[in-house]
Amino acid sequence: MSFIRYDINDSVAVITIDNPPVNALSPAVWEGIEEAVARANADASAEAIVLIGAGSTFIAGADIKVFDILKTREDSLSRSARTHALLKRVEDSHKPLVAAIHGNALGGGLEVAQACHFRVATGDARVGQPEVLLGIIPGAGGTQRLPRLCGVGMALEMSLQGKPVAAPRALAAGIVDHIVAGDLLTGAIAFARSKANARAIRKTRDITLGPDQIKVGLEACAAARASLAKTAKGQMAPDAAVNAIEAGLQRPFDEGSTRERELFADCVVSTESKALRHLFFAEREAAKVPDVPKDTRAKDITRAAIVGAGTMGGGIAMTYANAGIPVLLKEVDDAALQRGLATIRRNYDVTMSKGKMTAAQVEQTLALITPTTSYDEFDQVDIVVEAVFENMDLKRTTFGELGAVTRPDCVLASNSSTLDIDELGRASGRPAQVLGHHFFSPANVMRLLEIVRGRSTNTDVIATSLQLAKRLGKVGVVVGNCFGFVANRMLAYYMREAYLLLEEGASVDQIDRVLTEFGLPVGPFGMQDIAGIDVGARIRQYLKSIGKNRAEGPQSDIPDRLFDMGRYGQKTAAGWYKYEAPGSRTRTPDPLIEQLAGEAAARRGITRRSIADDEIVARITTALANEGARVLDEGYATRAGDIDVIYVYGFGFPRHRGGPMFYADTVGLDVVLSRVKEYRSRFGEYWEPAPLLERLAAEGRGFYSEAAVHQM
Ligand code: 3H9
User: Fold this and answer.
1) Does residue 28 sit in helix, strand or coil?
2) Can 363 be counted among the known catalytic residues?
3) Atom of ligand 1 at shortest distance to CA of 83?
């Protein structure tokens, strides 16, 4: 009972769950709750019972690590049968049982609260069923009890989107019975006493839905299923949640619960769930950098400056303003500044038209952005993000100026996507304060922030960047300073393989289709038409001038030929596809690309062939895993999970596949290695197995083993 405290307060038994940091439901906590409720029922000095969480939250759900113990469907079935029975015994308490919610009541936490007779909450509490985000469904009765409390429509919304609901909405919906204005425990005790006086006990499982509610509920399930067929292709958990809720409408509580257990068991042992659970922890691990101790002092960022108001600079300024941080936005002249500001305003107008911000909020946020064409006031900022054109001479000059105009403790970050951070550090004269903050386009939307440490970057600058990333709503991942860092270094191999597949006989349309079916939001060619073919071409021109290639091995010249033709993608109404007008998003395949591919194949002396969809997925994912293994082995990423997080948040690699490294583990590293060797014999020496891949495959291991974890 060490995770559970039991006290009598004003004739009410107070059961406090104390399992830091989030009161997750480990097996001992489940048992402790049941024992304490039984004790209160037998305790003559208790008239009612309050269940409350210690610390900053009620209960954030089942302990996610425990799911790894469930190796088979049968393991899961027997464990959840015990959990269901336990919650029924808790619900059978003959004294009024009140859940007192502050912070979060999520997943199993909300299910425990649903098994209580009543729920009270603080005004800022949140309740949710986020299981689907972990590839599972509510498995402790949530698919049966929640619809009884709030109706099927809202239960579907909560179970399918996984987003928490704020207390006032939960109150209106019937999930919560009362909002406590002052001290939660005092309010909960008073509420519990009033229920004891009225001898009120309400078991959620005894609530019955009327025939009309059932009819509407079944229709809502059918509609949700039809919509999932489009939005959640290839995923099992969302469908399973609908099926479990539907079963609850068609069968009595116990039978519905049995169906929930079966569906939960199918999900919890699935690769989809393992991948999503892996990402949950990988994302949190990414914030831990081996040589940056937890107690490293992070600087509080109260004012920032951005140099460059182009697409990236403007998006970064919006990101800071959205987080409430005042920001100076500098451009070389007024014309460039006005162009940048107009784009920012247009972006906010779109946000407003979608109802995501009010006009007042937009004005308030815009007021945090101060345009400037000088370095005045740069001595008052805590961080500068440089987002000028990707050109080393220009960036070197900018860092020289920044070194002179900012305070010595100011963090100097570059948004470069490829250039050497150490060189920028030297140019500033203050290399310890310099690092990369590589945002992804559109910077105000994409969640990834690649934090690139230089050779001399101070650990407190890294700690500051990680803390700041969280405040900006980003997922920060610290990487080393290699060419293209981690994201773009791997992307180069992904793109090269896509180009070569095209030359060998696959079509642009086929490659994009296959990869979107795999789960990416957009395929490589569609993505490039959005990002702009000119962007990559200009970087390639620069690299050529310094004698570098983005990826080793053969390079297709088709992207450069498109660039020479002025086909930059959506913005010029032509790129890899044709578009009706500049800016239009409706793609039409263009026979010209087939012609260019045919010419490229002829130059390389290859006969174009029909390529199976499976080969496309295998070639592209193998290229990513092999280069990822090299990045890891060379120490530019701390752990395989960091690469997965980068790819999921930076390029939309399907979450339910866990990222490129996790996916490689599910394929089997022996298979991945044999593919690399096969491709080498078929396509050439450029397919060279990464040494780490060879080592791990020889040892019969995956990327997720101790040997694969490196210190930078
Ligand atoms: C479930 O309940 C299934 C049920 O239907 C029952 C079936 C029988 N388990 O996020 P933070 C750790 S499924 C284990 O940085 P924040 C986390 O790893 C569950 N550990 O804090 C981190 O550890 P570390 C449904 C957990 O303030 C530390 O706590 N519930 C769990 O930014 C702090 O976390 C969910 O999916 C957990 N459930 O955000 C909710 N939760 O310090 C998952 C957290 O070592 N949790 N940890 O890195 C969250 O969404 C956020 O953690 C929360 C706090 C919003 C609560």
Assistant:
1) helix
2) no
3) 8
Q: How far apart are CA 624 and CA 620, in angstroms?
A: 6
**Distance between CA 132 and CA 123 in Å, rounded?**
26
pLDDT tens, position by position, 10-41? 999 999 999 999 999 999 999 999 999 999 99
594 is catalytic: no
Q: Two tokens at 259? A: 């169906």
What are the C-alpha distances in Å from 215 to residues 150, 152, 222, 253, 526?
16, 10, 11, 17, 42
Q: Which residues neighbour 591 within 8 Å (Cβ) at sequence distance 6 or greater?
A: none
The helix/strand/coil state of 637 is strand
Question: CA angle, 585 as apex, 582 and 589 as ends, to 5°?
Answer: 95
Q: Which is it for strands 97-101 and 118-122: parallel, antiparallel or unpaired?
A: parallel
Report the distance separating Cα 433 and Cα 156, nearest Å: 49
Which of 47, 74, 91, 111 does the annotation list as catalytic? Answer: 111
Q: Quick check: 493 and 623 in contact, CB under 8 A?
A: yes
Q: What average pLDDT score do residues 568-578 get?
A: 94
Is the C-beta atom of 65 inside 6 A of ligand 1? yes
Q: Cα of 109 to ligand 1 centre, how many Å?
A: 11
Q: Which atom of ligand 1 lies at the shortest distance from residue 285's CA?
A: 48
> Are residues 552 and 687 in contact, defined by beta-carbon separation less than 8 angstroms?
no
State the DSSP string of 260-312. HHHHHHHHHTSHHHHHHHHHHHHHHHTT-BTTB-TTPPPPP---EEEE--SHH
Torsion of the alpha carbons at 547, 550, 556 and 560, rounded to the nearest 10 = -70
Predicted pLDDT of residue 644: 98
Mutational test site, ligand 1, from 17, 63, 64, 475, max ligand atoms within 8 Å of CB:
64
- Asked whether residue 2 carries a pLDDT value surpassing 90, the answer given is no
